[in-house]
Amino acid sequence: MNLTKTGSCLCGAVTFRTHGPLREVVYCHCSQCRKQSGHFYAATNVQDGCIEVNGADMLHWYAASAKARRGFCKNCGSALFWKHKELDYVSVLAGAFNQPTGLKGACHIFVEDKADYYEIHDGLPQFAGSAPSVKVAED
Q1: Dihedral sign computed on CA atoms, order 39, 28, 12, 76
Q2: What's this model's pTM, rounded to 2 decimal places?
């Protein structure tokens, strides 16, 4: 199985390549993810040493909290990454990967914060806050 995946922002100024296994996709419905993306985050993650980013000069990191930051393209605004300061992996937004991704959904987190204009009916586990296996940047 090919564990190398590629992706980019909308305009292509920031590209990336991952090597090795990716976590299943976690759908985050918290207010920060909703405000940044316009809906909710769908993200996987990869170990820090298993991702190469090209165009890093076009990547801007926004400190969303004291513990985490969000990476996006300076040119087109595409949300790409989420990084917790205490963890050795980076979350990568699933939609930024080139097809086929081979990714599968795992669960929904922060469903108590989700927007009021949609329902979740995919049968995946739902958590009011974070899932036990997902480290987030709650202060």
Answers
A1: positive
A2: 0.92
